[in-house]
Amino acid sequence: MNRLRQRRRAGQTIVLLALVLGILMIMAALVIDVGSTHRVRTETQYVSDAGALAGIAELLNSRDVNAARTKALEVCRLNGYSVGSNGVTMIIARAFNHNAWPEEDPSKIDVADSDRYEVTIHRELPQYIANIIGIGRTGTIQGAVAAIIGSVPIDAALGSLLGLPDEANLSQFGPDAPYTFGDAYSTKRLDNGAPNPRYDPLGYIYDLAVPDDLQSSTGSAFVRVEIFDPDTINRGTHVAKQPSQLTYGADRSEPSGGGMDEIRATPPNGNADTNPAQFPTRSTQTDFTLVDRNGQVIATASYGPTGNTPFWTIRQAPASDALNNASHADPAQAQIATDLKWITPQGFEFDTRLHPRPYNMRVKTISGSSENGYMLRVGAQRASGVVYDPVTHGTTASSSIAVYARGKVPINFRTSDVSKIPIGNVPSSAKQVIVTNFDADVGSQSVKFSMSSFDSSSGQGKYPVLWPAPPSASGSNVVTDTNGSKYYTNVPGTLSPNGEFRTDTIDIPQTVAVPQTDGNGNLLLNGAGRVVVVDTRPFEGADLEISYTSGQYDTSVWECSFIGPPGGGQQRIVLIR
Length: 577
Description:
There is one protein chain. The chain is an alpha+beta fold. It folds into three domains: 2-149, no CATH class; 152-415, no CATH class; 422-577, no CATH class. The protein is built from six helices and 33 strands. The protein has helices at residues 2-62, 65-78, 214-218, 279-282, 331-336, 390-393; strands at 88-96, 116-125, 138-151, 153-155, 168-173, 204-209, 222-228, 247-248, 255-257, 285-291, 297-304, 307-308, 311-313, 342-345, 349-351, 359-367, 371-380, 402-406, 408-413, 420-426, 432-438, 446-455, 461-464, 467-469, 478-480, 486-488, 491-492, 501-507, 511-515, 533-538, 542-549, 554-563, 570-575. Helix 1 (2-62) packs antiparallel against helix 2 (65-78).
């Protein structure tokens, strides 16, 4: 009896073991094949990404949709992906316009003004082990979309008189500063100590607009690049608190008092004011680098507690007056030499005949935790004792000599009630403008966007761009023309909270109603309080302005880009999937 029970138990054990082994084999098959499927899907996604980026790069370069398709498919083939091999059953490679996805409007596929490129790969996935238990082939569809995005030039003068920081100034924190102080691209770490993924080792890039007729208009091929207050100190004080306003003497080109910098501690005590003993380590060292079209460095300068490049002041002329060379026996005293002054660093007046246009300046903070407020300008050569004048030294017969931030700019708003400040020069090819702001949280209340264009045909000059509004529209930003049509004079924006980004997408009216103005850009209304439309025309390009009510000393980053056909403005490629 006992032997019979033992045989029965042995038989049950064998059956159970067979079941367990079967389950384990199924699990192993699924694990192996699921892992293989994940690997193949990831690989297919990478190839789709590469194909889309290759297609959009060719489209930006040649503006030929057929050449873009050839390039995209070639990149897929070089990675082992072509129809009929490696399980690939279909590859979709096509350009289209951002206004509509191809499925929504087939007429947008491979059109002349395409600014998107899609690559989608259909691939069968064989099941090597799962096939034994009846699980056959499955498939994957992986796709990517790459886009052409244009960087909108941002006036580095911020619209203030002579480029002076009455309302706002450019501003960068040192790499050891807290991330949530407002500069997302200069600080190396987030406030939790993790690496900042947005840290940009190149710093901020500013393009120098130097017209081709510089020499014929000014009599000299030399251009002079100046920096206002390149140090990190406030007129000999070692505290973060600043006066509410800059003050000026007889010469308004430079103030006689005030402050632009905030001396801050490193985390976790970032909000703590500093003292003289801590000033050298907390003060920020900033590098300024001039580069020509070929990437050749024209000149470099650095200002802060570890070194100051020799310089000339506003009334001095390079090659005529003696260089100023501040000693660093006392770092604070050395920085005071450049505090609240326009200076020309050694090498920053250069012969444009020796360096091909265009030029740019890279501004990077390399040490410290404080905020360095500064301004930039570029102008024609001038003699010793002559102060910069925007008309005489800032223009040629054909255009302005100016500085533009490339797509993004860090701004310190000095007052709590800011009027319109230019935030981007939108090209005529733009269909939409994208504005992103970071960390606009210090007492900020509202932001509105408006645009102004220039009407040369009627002689009235600057005029506001109006957005068509529905008949039901009302409010302080709504005007009505003599025919009863309504328009918005501005559109509201979104402000970002502490340490975060917020983005607004602004549609550009492609047909613009040109209103009558007073010659200074202000609307003129008739006796009935209505706008008189003097002309309608395609959008000609415009300056985008922000009307921003902020808190005092609010530092934030503003980015501006546009969506439009290839060939307009400073364009770049992004993968948007």
